[in-house]
Write a structure and sequence with these properties.
By secondary structure, this protein is α/β, with parallel strands linked by helices. The chain contains 68 helices and 25 strands. Helix 38 packs antiparallel against helix 39.
């Protein structure tokens, strides 16, 4: 670019200082402040020629302009003109653009680029730089050469694209903004420098893309008047002055000193008319010129000054306000204050709501700050926002946003929150159309139609957002982001603003405008229509670039390298924010967690450390920061519990040794003894070896959690990484194996491709942290290789570590003795210390005080409900505290003297919900005891006070959480120390019952029921209390029916059955003691029994048929049965009722059990052999009434025997075919069934002695009696069913031999009732032979393989492939399984048949449970190739049963040499994810026994495996891939 003048200037030596000033301004074109420095230092032309660069720097002129002046001065002295060797656009670069070029294209260190920017090196300066100039700025020689070389190369390249760089500081005073020279000089420049006029504008166009932004930028970078109205107003005012007064005005103006600007020199004002004067004033004072005019006029013509003040338009008033604002704080600081409540971090607000109108593509690069903010939702009035050039689309490139409409915010608050994933992911709400969807319903509406069709929905949306239970008061901020003008009030976004101020204070809303003109109109509208001035809550004088930079520079800072996760081969990958957004259930622990989030030398970091440590040691939840601080200071390590190393070793060994995709490790601990802290400490130290995460939302479906865990495992890598997942459960009620199974399914079904070498890393270890009142007992019942426990007791070494830690805390914290949770642990949970603390705190307790009441509520809640708190806002409402925005909460002040015992917790999954609780469970418990002893305040009194407080009960999110805690307090039952059983009632109800009995308990439940009208749990719990403790069965049934009417499920129906059963048992016990007979008792009992059977059958029907959503099994999670495991308990109830009825009938005079003949009558009646009218009885009134009653109920009574037999058969199948969970609960039920079966046999099966007598009396009936005797024997030994015979695999051989002998006899005699019986007994005969062979192969009753196969084939021919039971097809697996030499081409059909029939017959029993193989394929031929599970277990006689069970569960049993020696490995393939056993062309479908047995990805592979035979088909064990 060439600069020239039209005529040569005079010799330099003759220049005055004014000439030097003019040359600097016009030729060199430096900033006016630089030129002024020369003038102030009296540098004339003869002095200028002797100046060097150092002399210029001595004038406090920065390096950039100094180099430029030096370069121009050199040309001046040599008589040559300055000519640039570089493209013209370079000289138009601002210093910021030079910085961008250096970083983005030259790629120098940022410190060099920043150094040049600090020294005001713009493009026109940079082109004058030599190497030495760069070296003088501490740029090393290498980068200096590179900068100059790249500068030269620009001549050969197209103009580089420069992207804005987000600043790390928002200091707007770093460099003075250039101001325009005075008007007269500017005119002189115009005559000599025609090229220079548009220089500023050219620079502006490089930065800002649209007209309005250019306009704003020019106003910020020049002092030229930006509104001609100011000139006109001043001129018109001055024209009202007389000539003399106008002279006075000039005189006073020349000495005006109330502005930061220097006054206009008197010489410049001489001979100037009103127009020129106005121009000079606006040139010097800018928008402040009107105020200056008014001030000067005050001493000349007060009336005219007043007139001017009145005539100042709205726009000038706004400008004056703006200037006044600038004097008190610049807009950058103001923006920071508005967003951070005067701090430095965006964390001061828990959530932001943004309302935005139409954007243009050029603005998007400056709106990246939205991705940094914790957005609750965005209300977007731009229908193009979702298109590629829209704001929403841009946001979703880096963050997750769910796209919604206002109507989706209608409904129950908690349902909306759950369905829309609010708090977890940003909700982007399209408020006026959505053009990326092609439908008429998504088109943008004009204002009139929007008002009619959409306005109401948006108003409801605003009402939802402003609900203080959704976004907590004072802890959220609404931002109106105006990217385009709002011309008048008929704009949907203005209506939305009015909706907001109906529901919230104006102070909760700020405005950010992209241009001043937009702002002024917006402010004017609000002032006019809403009578409110938003100026103090608005940002309008910053460009979008500056707004973006300012917000991005606020904390918390993003880690420069990104959040890192460990990956394969000791590498690391970046965890992108968008990926983290998707994994809403997980709090992910990164390799570089907490690093570089703060300047660690700053006071802010020091204060953070003090605060975090104080919160934790007082009783707050442990944070990753606690471990980070300890790692930073190795001399003050985190206290390690004794079990730390054990737990770490257990996790590592599980990773190394286990073959499962997912394993569960248990850590049982007392509440408040540091269990969760220990788990997180171990996790922190294993974060290099695992991808670690804490499950932060236990309410999500397990399938969703599993999907997120799988995503974490494979994130950003082709190879999986092991995951360590911490699940913290406070209730001991969840079944953690549900999550294990879901993770295994997710890993295998979702296409996880794993090489054999990577198998060890394709693993999830769940560390299940369980609060328990008996952790040691719980530990003893679990596998010690997969469990650990800690208790509220310290070892000597641990106590010494706590003593040492106290001394460390005394060095850094004030009064660490008040860190009560820490002190409780240091005292080794000393009860006296805790009691003294409670006594001293409650010394002046007054229950009439709201504060004291609230503390009592917390004591009750924190004693009886783990992880409970009362929300901060609810406490404030209760105490009548009004929260003012930005003000520190004064709740803790109001709670004195109890505030030392309280702490605030934040619950992220509830929208950063803040809750108050007592520091430690033991403190809460001690305070509750002290209230009872000293203040005579019983727990029932506090409970009733809570239930009577209307404030606590309404359908809102925060109150909903509190209500859940109250429910848990009333219904959650603790596990007993002596087993799997739970206490009959919650600890609170037990305590109230012990103190005050039924009346108070019932009052509490009745009141609670009126509060929780949609919950079945409360009436169900009351029903249980009434029938178990009070035996008030009618009242209990009433409440149980109420529970069922609220929600019918297996549990509520079962409760009704249990009440009737208890009633029947009670009546039976009473009647046993009575000597007289009352027929009406029989009538009552049969009716009760009928109702009970009906209830139990309904419960079982619901359990069998309903496919209930996860987490919705029962309101009462701790009811009579483990959650989601009702299974077969309805069948058990039916059995118990039937045998109670049989017992009651057996006491009747004509059915007395002690009399063989009368017993025979009862048998015959119940077997439907004779009607009740044929039963012999004494003829009396009582017997006649009994007969009438029995006749009335005959249908029910005679159905019981069949019902019982069918139930036994079903339970036989259940206990035989289903994989046992080895729980004490299930074992006890099995014994119950066995006991009932013995009663059944005694009642219905004829005793051998009676048969002998009958044979003697009726010799002609010998064959019939023999057959009955054989069948009776089979039934007695539970061998009359297929499942029953299979159970004899681990019983004595002699018994099975007799069973086989019986079936052999029946086969010979062929005396069958029908074909169905013949088929069943033939099938059972074949199976009994197989079982006998395995137990006693030499028995004379065993048929050989050929004989059994022939009989089976005949049976299969008779029944075909649609037999309703899987039994014959199971035998086909055993006897007809192909061998390498013989192949049955029909065999595949049998596999399909067993799958179909087992599904139809047994599917209700298989729900959520796996089948078990009783027999395996061995290495022999014929029957020799069958191996039973008991035979395999013989090799492990010395091993503990639970250890052996674990080997079977995880498949490690098949690694044992003894097993390998016995079993045959079958060759097969995996195709499309399915396993096949291959015999030539024959492909037999086989199911993997362990879901983790096959890799996903649908790769076709050769495999081998061991084969087991289950009732629903063949199972593949220990699948090995050949390659």
């Amino acid at each position: 670019m060439r600069r020239s003048t039209k005529k040569s200037p005079p010799p330099v030596e003759t220049w005055t200082k004014e000439d030097v000033h003019l040359w600097l301004m016009t030729e060199v074109q430096v900033h006016k402040t630089c030129a002024d420095r020369f003038c102030e230092e009296e540098v004339s032309g003869d002095i200028l020629v002797d100046f060097e660069k150092t002399d210029i720097l001595d004038l406090r002129i920065k390096h950039g302009p100094a180099v430029k002046i030096t370069s121009y001065l050199k040309g001046l002295k040599e008589g040559s003109r300055h000519e640039s060797q570089f493209p013209g656009y370079v000289e138009n670069w601002t210093k910021e653009q030079v910085n961008q070029w250096l970083l983005q294209h030259v790629k120098v260190y940022s410190k060099y680029a920043e150094r040049l920017q600090e020294e005001d090196v713009s493009g026109d300066c940079l082109v004058c730089f030599k190497k030495q100039d760069l070296l003088d700025l501490d740029v090393k020689s290498g980068p200096a050469v590179k900068i100059l070389a790249e500068l030269k190369r620009l001549k050969e390249k197209p103009e580089p694209t420069l992207q804005p760089i987000l600043p790390t500081s928002t200091d707007e005073e770093a460099a003075p903004k250039p101001t325009q020279p005075e008007q007269s000089l500017a005119q002189a420049i115009a005559t000599t420098q025609p090229e220079s006029c548009n220089k500023t504008e050219a620079k502006t166009e490089e930065i800002v893309g649209n007209e309005k932004a250019q306009e704003t930028f020019k106003k910020q970078t020049t002092g030229l008047p930006d509104n001609p109205k100011i000139n006109v107003t001043i001129q018109e005012t001055l024209e009202d002055l007389s000539k003399e007064d106008f002279k006075k005005f000039h005189f006073n103006l020349a000495v005006y000193d109330r502005s930061p600007h220097k006054p206009i020199p008197r010489g410049k004002l001489e001979d100037k008319d009103t127009m020129d004067t106005a121009k000079l004033m606006t040139g010097r004072y800018g928008s402040e010129a009107l105020q200056v005019t008014k001030d000067v006029l005050q001493d000349i013509d007060r009336d005219l000054a007043l007139k001017l003040e009145k005539s100042m338009g709205q726009q000038e008033q706004q400008r004056l306000s703006k200037e006044a604002l600038k004097k008190e704080a610049n807009q950058g600081d103001k923006l920071k204050n508005l967003l951070t409540c005067g701090g430095n971090s965006l964390d001061n607000y828990s959530r932001f709501v943004v309302v935005v109108n139409k954007s243009c593509p050029e603005q998007l690069q400056y709106l990246k700050f939205l991705s940094k903010m914790k957005l609750f939702c965005v209300l977007d009035f731009d229908p193009d926002s979702g298109t590629p050039d829209g704001l929403c689309h841009s946001y979703r490139e880096s963050r997750v946003a769910n796209l919604h409409t206002p109507t989706q915010y209608q409904g129950q608050t908690d349902s909306v929150i759950k369905n829309l994933n609010l708090y977890k992911q940003t909700s982007w709400v399209f408020c006026n159309g959505r053009h990326d969807l092609d439908s008429d319903s998504n088109k943008e509406l004009d204002y009139k139609n929007w008002l009619r069709k959409s306005c109401k929905d948006v108003e409801q949306l605003v009402s939802f957002i402003c609900n203080p239970e959704v976004l907590l008061r004072g802890r959220s901020l609404i931002i109106f982001l105006l990217l385009s003008p709002v011309d008048n009030e008929k704009d949907p976004i203005f209506d939305t603003y009015r909706s907001f101020i109906k529901h919230t204070e104006e102070e909760n809303i700020i405005t950010i405008c992209a241009s001043q003109s937009t702002y002024f109109k917006w402010r004017e509208l609000i002032q006019e229509k809403c009578d409110y001035d938003i100026d103090h809550l608005s940002i309008n004088d910053l460009t979008l670039s500056e707004i973006n930079g300012t917000i991005m520079a606020l904390g918390p800072f993003s880690q420069s390298s990104g959040r890192l996760l460990p990956s394969s081969g000791s590498s690391a990958v970046v965890l992108k924010k968008k990926e983290e957004d998707v994994m809403t259930a997980l709090d992910i622990l990164c390799l570089n967690q907490c690093e570089k989030m703060y300047d660690e030398e700053s006071p802010e970091f020091h204060d953070l450390r003090i605060k975090v440590e104080e919160e934790f040691y007082r009783g707050g939840k442990v944070k990753w920061w606690n471990f980070y601080f300890s790692d930073k200071d190795k001399e003050k390590p985190f206290v390690k519990r004794e079990k730390y190393e054990h737990l770490k070793k257990m996790i590592r060994s599980q990773l190394r040794d286990s073959k499962n995709i997912c394993d569960l490790l248990n850590l049982f601990h007392h509440p408040g003894c540091g269990g969760t802290t220990l788990a997180m400490h171990v996790m922190w130290d294993l974060r290099q070896e695992f991808r670690c995460a804490v499950l932060k939302d236990n309410t999500l479906p397990k399938t969703e959690v599993a999907s997120q865990v799988r995503r974490l495992m494979t994130l950003e890598s082709d190879k999986p990484s092991p995951v360590l997942l911490l699940v913290d459960d406070s209730k001991e009620s969840e079944n953690p194996y549900d999550l294990v199974n879901c993770i295994q399914r997710a890993a295998t079904e979702d296409g996880l491709n794993v090489n054999v070498d990577d198998a060890q890393n394709c693993k999830v270890i769940i560390l299940y942290c369980v609060r328990s009142h008996s952790p040691k007992e719980q530990y003893r019942k679990h596998n010690p290789m997969q469990s650990q426990y800690i208790t509220a007791s310290l070892t000597q070494e641990e106590q010494q570590e706590f003593e040492k830690k106290l001394k460390e805390l005394q060095e850094t914290h004030e009064k660490p003795e008040n860190f009560y949770s820490f002190m409780i642990m240091k005292s080794n949970f000393d009860q006296k210390y805790i009691e003294d603390l409670a006594r001293n705190t409650l010394e002046n307790f007054d229950n009439s005080s709201k504060t004291d009441q609230l503390f009592a509520f917390l004591a009750l809640l924190n004693t009886y409900v783990a992880e409970s708190e009362i929300s901060l806002s609810l406490c404030e409402d209760f105490l009548g505290i009004k929260v003012i925005r930005w003000q520190e909460d004064n709740l803790m002040d109001r709670m004195k003297p109890y505030s030392n015992l309280l702490i605030t917790d934040t619950v992220e999954e509830w929208g950063d919900f803040k809750g108050i609780r007592i520091l430690h469970h033991s403190i809460a418990s001690a305070c509750l005891e002290r209230l009872e002893k000293s203040c005579h305040l019983k727990v029932s009194d506090i409970t009733m006070e809570i239930l009577h407080c209307d404030l606590f009960f309404s359908d809102t999110v925060v109150k909903h959480r509190f209500m859940l805690s109250i429910q848990r307090m009333l219904i959650d039952r603790q596990r007993r120390k002596d087993g799997d059983n739970r206490e009959p009632f919650s600890s609170l109800i037990n305590k109230i019952h012990g103190q005050q009995g039924r009346q108070m308990v019932q009052e509490i439940f009745v009141k609670a029921s009126s509060r929780f009208v949609t919950s079945a749990s409360i009436p169900q719990a009351l029903a249980r209390y009434l029938y178990i403790n009070e035996r008030d069965f009618p009242e209990a049934v009433k409440w149980a029916e109420k529970a069922k009417n609220i929600k019918e499920n297996p549990y509520t129906s079962d409760t009704i059955g249990q009440i009737h059963k208890k009633n029947l048992k009670s009546n039976n016990q009473r009647e046993k003691q009575e000597t007289s007979h009352n027929p009406e008792d029989l009538n009552t009992n049969i009716k009760i029994a009928h109702k009970a059977v009906k209830a139990f059958k309904r419960a079982q029907e619901l359990a069998n048929t309903e496919d209930e959503p996860e987490g919705d099994a029962a309101d009462d999670e701790s009811d009579d049965y483990p959650r989601k495991s009702y299974n077969v308990f309805g069948y058990l109830g039916v059995l118990e009722i039937a045998f109670l009825v049989f017992e009651i009938l057996a006491r009747l005079p004509f059915f007395e059990e002690s009399d063989p003949m009368k017993k025979r009558y009862l048998q015959s009646f119940l077997k439907k052999a004779i009607p009740i009218t044929s039963v012999y009885k004494e003829d009396n009134e009582i017997n006649s009434r009994y007969m009438e009653i029995i006749k009335d109920h005959e249908q029910f009574l005679v159905s019981l025997k069949t019902e019982v037999k069918e139930t036994f058969d079903i339970l036989d199948c259940y206990f035989t075919y289903i994989k046992a969970n080895n729980s004490e609960f299930e074992s006890r039920n099995r014994w119950t069934v066995c006991g009932h079966f013995n009663k059944y046999f005694t009642l219905f099966c004829t005793a051998p002695e009676e048969m002998r007598k009958e044979r003697q009396n009726n010799p002609n009936l010998n064959l019939k009696i023999d057959i009955e005797e054989k069948r009776s024997f089979l039934e007695k030994n539970q061998a009359d069913t297929f499942a029953g015979i299979l159970q004899h695999l681990d019983k004595p051989a002699e018994e099975t031999e007799k069973i086989t002998e019986c079936y052999e006899f029946l086969q010979q005699k062929q005396q069958f009732i029908d074909k169905k019986q013949k088929t069943k007994e033939t099938i059972n005969y074949i199976l009994s032979n197989i079982v006998l062979y395995l137990l006693k192969p030499t028995s004379q009753h065993v048929k050989n393989h050929s004989q059994l196969s022939a009989l089976l084939l005949k049976t299969l021919h008779d029944v075909g492939l649609r037999y309703p039971f899987p039994d014959p097809y199971y035998l086909a697996l055993l006897l007809l399984w192909p061998s390498p030499t013989e192949r049955n081409t029909d065999f595949e059909a049998y596999v399909r048949a067993i799958r179909n029939s087992s599904y139809k017959r047994l599917t209700s029993l298989f729900r959520r449970r796996s089948t078990v193989a009783h027999l395996y394929l061995g290495k022999g031929e014929g029957l020799k190739r069958l191996v039973s599970k008991p035979q395999l277990d013989e090799n492990f006689k010395k091993m503990r049963r639970d250890t052996l069970a674990q080997l079977w569960r995880n498949g490690d049993i098949f690694k044992d040499k003894a097993i390998i020696k016995r079993l045959h490995r079958v060759s097969g393939t995996i195709e499309q994810g399915e396993v096949f056993a291959n015999y030539g062309k024959l492909k037999i479908p086989v199911r993997p026994a362990l879901i983790a047995g096959i890799m996903s990805g649908f790769s076709t592979e050769k495999v081998s495996f061991y084969l087991g035979f289950a009732i629903n088909g063949p199972l593949a064990y220990d699948i090995q891939y050949e390659n």
